[in-house]
Protein: Integrase
Amino acid sequence: MHWRNYSTRFSAQQDILNYMTMWYNSHRIHSYLGYQSPNHFEQQNNVLQKVA
Structure:
C-alpha cells in the first residue's frame, strides 16, 4: 500500500480492509495450496475440471 492521509480513522480502516481482501489474500502464496496464490490455484483447478 502507498502512504496516504485519511480524513477519518474509519476511511483508513476501510481502505486497509479492502486491500487485504481484494489484493493481498488473493495474490500471496499459501502453503495449503501447494505454495500457490489462490488465484493461480483456482485457474489451474478450472483447467483440470474442463479436461476431466
Remarks:
- DSSP finds two helices and no strands in the chain.
- The two ends are 40 Å apart (CA to CA).
